[in-house]
């Protein structure tokens, strides 16, 4: 009687393991919501002049060496994020590349650094909780003291942000931590991020996520050609504004919703896919992954029950097969042989 | 009824020419492994910011552990479905699983960027229960220990000390049960790892909620196929008796698993409107067609009553399925993995040598052990 129930439980859970993936979809959680006091940055590509002051300041704040690219030994020439570079300015170009912020024969700048996702793939994927989202600020920090270097965070980041120091025998993961990692703590001390502080045009603006989002949306409603006083530095306490004519903005705040949203948001007059932003829906992959993962666990009826059922079945069958050990070791025979010799 | 007397060591010379050849490959692999530890991963591999995982993770862990699912597949057959007639196959299968998983675990260790801190994954205070990688890591770690316990009776028997194992004997059924549960969990999780990679996994292989189902089905298919493959190779290379009649029955399970797999696989593509990608003239479409053919050809062979009785046809089908399952995983994790413009990856020569070295070590260990220990099934006495 009991055995039959065990068998049922075990077969049921075995079936559920395989089907859990299908059924699990119903279990998936929602995207995470922004942290209550989320801070972030607004990067307005149309204001960026490509001076790379932010890159230099970032290196200074984070104690990173300049990166030398091949023969170009005369300047820091990081091409992309790496173990030595948390922040990089890239260029989009089309045709002759003469007109700023235009698609035809145009060019535009794009800042790449950690987007500080609201529902971060890196945090969700890290097995040892070395990537953490701060409860209040939503800042994503990395903690090398527990990191095992599995690089799952890199595969799980939609923006390819975390970078491993492949060139060192004892390397670690590097990424922008919004200048708030232990030993730097600019935000905790009431300062703004290094890159926002030095940005001469206000292209990189620091502030609360909600304020930045409102500012971004305001800019998108402005009339092209109108003059606007662009705040610089910290949105809550801006320095002397930068006055400039309003460009032809794309009606899209990148990071408002993408994969659950980001705390670092971008606006631009060039479509974001041209600037190298990834193809993301509103649903975060982290939420789907966690839904399936927890769905499987619960469908396995807590692996313990499955194990109890399996144990009962295996025990019955090994006994029935005259093979209690499960590996056919015949003790009597063995002892007989020993006796003979 | 006991099968004890029917296992014996092969007993031929260990240092054959092919063994020495494997030894050379292993030595080259070990040289580059040391290089990796001394000079960093970049000195040996082509890994980069967009491709953090290369063949070390994908072959050594993702594919390698699936190839090592023979013990798992047989344990289910014998102990869960009570098919005692497959006993003659269990020891070599468990041995191959043990070697495959142990070297997969070793592979994971030298692919781990901060290997000296690996113990952090064993400390419950660090566990992130949302992370699929946690489950994979812990399950694989535990399963290696379970496999060592499952295999323990063999060396004890060799030493004539099997009676010392009476205590283990009383609880081994529990480890056998664990040995069924753990691979079920971590093999399906290996698939789930693809979910959080999102758009980077090409649509033909990004099946989101179905990832665990596909992973577990391909693991089982590969597990049964590897048993067929090993036994057929043993017959050919080590002069072991033919087990074709037994094997042909195992194939029924494969036919079922394959049918379910293909049904869901194409169902997913159809429902999500992705069938069109198969017709694209690109590498992904080509790899998909190749992979699918390798799944379908064996299905044709194994469905045929006559063909599945023939040893040679069985070997062809088994080999195709091993390639198919491996290719499925390679495609999903590497060939169809695209982190965006600006990144490319192809394994470096030293990287390939490390992986070949691991495979060589595995085969050498297998050959060595079956020649010394009673692992293989002896021909029925006339
Ligand atoms: S951009 Fe990448 S590294 Fe930054 S929070 Fe998002 S997932 Fe993490
Ligand atoms: S590399 Fe480190 S931070 Fe990234 S997922 Fe692995 S353990 Fe976590
Ligand atoms: S916030 Fe700090 S670490 Fe991040 S990109 Fe700006 S300066 Fe660099």
Offer a few descriptive terms.
heterodimer, A: alpha/beta, five-stranded mixed beta sheet, three-stranded mixed beta sheet, 9 helices, 30% helix, disordered N terminus, disordered C terminus, B: 382 residues, mainly alpha, two-stranded antiparallel ribbon, 2 strands, binds iron/sulfur cluster
Q: Give average pLDDT of chain A, whole number.
A: 87
Mean of all residue-level pLDDT scores of chain B? 89
Shape of chain A: elongated
Distance between the termini of chain B: 18 Å
Structural class designation of chain B: mainly alpha
Helix content of chain B: 55-70%
For the largest interface in this structure, which chains are involved and how many residues does each contribute?
A-B, 90 and 100 residues
- H-E order of chain A: HEHEEEHEEHEEHEHEEEHHH
Query: Low-confidence spans of chain B: pLDDT under 50, at least 5 residues?
Result: none
Low-confidence segments of chain A:
1-26, 330-341
Treating each run of at least 4 consecutive H or I residues as one helix, how many helices of chain B?
Answer: 12
Number of extended strands of chain A: 12
Total number of helical segments of chain A? Answer: 9
Order of adjacent strands in the largest pleated sheet of chain A: 11-10-9-1-12
Shape of chain B: globular
Please report the distance between the alpha carbons of the first and last residues of chain A. 47 Å
Proportion of β residues of chain B? under 5%
Describe the sheet with the most strands of chain A.
5 strands, mixed
DSSP E strands of chain B, number:
2
Give the strand content of chain A. 15-25%
Largest sheet composition of chain B: 2 strands, antiparallel
